[in-house]
Specification:
By secondary structure, this protein is mainly beta. It contains no helices and 4 strands. Pfam families: YNCE.
């Protein structure tokens, strides 16, 4: 199976990026940084980390009730 093309590089992230959630408007990617004890917000128009929130030990999982739709990958 061929690997998908890379869309962009996002540099300067904290250690341990793990779980992600996409905002409903597709503009922001929220990411848990498990080893850094933070959640980060990435602006997908600039590909930059724009904010971090200290959340305590080993954050794992994000869920937005109003989020971007999830589509199953095409099996072909």
């Amino acid at each position: 199976m061929a690997m998908p093309a890379q869309a962009a590089d996002i540099t300067g992230l904290m250690p341990g990026p793990d779980d992600m959630e996409l905002s409903a408007d597709h503009r922001y990617l929220w990411v848990t940084f498990r080893f850094s004890r933070h959640v980060g917000i990435i602006d997908l128009t600039t590909h930059k980390l724009i904010d971090t929130i200290a959340v305590g030990r080993s954050p794992h999982g994000l869920y937005f009730a109003n989020r971007a739709p999830v589509y199953a990958p095409n099996p072909d």
